[in-house]
Here is the input.
Amino acid sequence: MTVPIPVEFAGTSVGNGVFDPALRLITQISLAGTSVGNGSCVLTQSDVPGAFADIAVVPYGPSVYPDPAFTHVTSGVYRPGGTGDTVGQWKRLSLSLTVPNSEYVPGPMGRIYGIFDQARLGVTSSNMAVNETQQLAYVQFEKTPPGSDLDTNQFGSNLFTLEQASYEGRMLYEPVGGAGETSYMTFSRTTERASCGAFSGKFVYQSPPPTNSYTAVQNFGTYPNLLARRQTYADVKYRAFTTDDALPGTTPSTDVGGTPVAAPATLTLRPLQAAFVRVEPGVTYQAQISAAAEVAGQQFQCAILRYDASFNLIGTYAAGSAVTTAGGFKWQQASAQLLMEDTAVWAAVVPRVTSGGASRFVFFTDEHRIWIPSTLATKKNSASPARSWQPPRQLVLKLRATRLNLVKNPSFQNSVWGWNQVKDPSLTAALTLVSGGGIVGNAASFSITTAPTATLINGLSPRTGVTTVTGQSALITRLKPSTVYTASLYVKPVASSVPITIWAHNGDQLVRGTSSPIFDPTGNTTWYRLAVTFKTSPTFGGDGAISLGYAADDVASVYSAIQPGTNDAVWAQVDQAPVAEPNWSQSIPYTASARVQYNGLLWESVVANGPYANIGPITFYYDHFLLEEADKVAPYFDGNNPSGDYMWEGTPGDSRSHYYRGKRVNQYRLDQIIQRQLGVGASYRIVYASAP
Here is the structure.
């Protein structure tokens, strides 16, 4: 708003002469004290552009705007209010104007003004009655985006960030198909092809090989999804090996291979939550995406996904016109336009490509775009081009934490979500929440009432225990490829003396961590911290897979024939001569504290051991799960630590935890630095505990 400076005239001020623009003279006047005069004031103006760059006197009237800034406006359209406006009702006023984008250099005068970087708005009210009140609110000044409309063919400002719009930073999308065939899909960052920048996203659907020969299946076994799932030859949906190409040590078969699994009709992507952009209900948005397909003749569309405030998908998707793929990995663009629903809060843009039912299909995608069409699109019906009012721009500073616990449910504050059982299908186990049973607060419990020892050692599962959930409800997300991480968990053996071990899956193989000791768990109250350090593979998918439980070899180390003297954790030598104790036998199961003779020495069993047919109950508690980008174990923390330095990213107990060392003091210092650097009136916001 322009506030005029009060000026009082009295007396007569007379001036004569002609203003000569050729004079190389800029007059600087300094006034002090009081100037009094009476008479008339003659208003004048100059025809030299830029003459009133710093101060101007202009006529005043209801149809003239007296703001000196308008001296340099080269064109303008004003949409004022009128005398007939309804009293007590808000009226939106607007103007569109253009300012010079060049310097004015009038010959020998030199430069008078340059390219502008500041502006000022003013409001003029005419014919106001005595005691009348007018209110102003929601002032907005913005550069009209070029947009893509009837008059221009350019993009508006992309609402996606660089990471959301491209693959230069990290992966924010997952492959999606029909039924269970998602396991044959991969989606990865690649530099093989790119529409813009260095990276693009590569979508591959690869059905198992058309023959079930040993060589084909062996080669297919290197496919990342099968390797990660530990699938064997029998898992690839084929009956037998072909003649003369059998698995070594087996009898060849004359059976032929099965039929390749056809790709779902449509291949698309599922955006992670970090790929969402906030949208406004009732506003029209345009979107575009680029794709390059290997096969010609398929249909490619740009799809807009909408979500409500709770991140629930609204309907299915809204797609634009289909584009027929040219093949040969030629980059093409598909677009869509949509009026956002009343419940829409978030949106994402993904490709949809028909596969033609092929058993192998490859395409690249890049340049996810979404924008609001240019406001100039409304100028044909003389409407105001002003967009709906938006909050003023802010400088948003997202501060990265000193440490980040990537586990979303680290201490079972609310439930035991995020975990699955790992066991032989014949066993019955329970995964429960133990209220108040943790180090602080709750703990999770895994238990089996009784189990055949042979099943634990030689069953279908080499591990018995729990593992983290991956996929849609993953407990750990956004792990980066080729990065070192350390995971740690506290465990308390409650029943069974078998050691408990932690593992991590790095994308290629299991990495074994530390184990709890063998001991008599009777009345035990000891928590042991287990840890594993691992480096993710170059093609790692993002979701962390950490397992905890009993390994088959650890079960065998206790519940098999353990000779005295081979394991001090099972048998301890007694410092006295044997009397009438029985000799040790490999066929006898021993209870804790049992004494035997062996090699002329007296031994006492530390724990129950030997060839028990069944063992149980098997129970352990676990708590305080920490996983962070580090090469060694560090002290545990979560958002509940009693200090302002610790924060939850989202829901307390069910989200990642952030630690900011010296947060209070450092924020004060940061505030002072920012305020000294920003211009007057600029705003900023410091964001803590944002998603990595």
About this structure: The mean pLDDT is 77. The helical segments are 162-165, 214-220, 224-229, 453-458, 552-556, 663-677. Residues 99 and 132 are 34 Å apart (CA to CA). DSSP finds six helices and 34 strands in the chain.
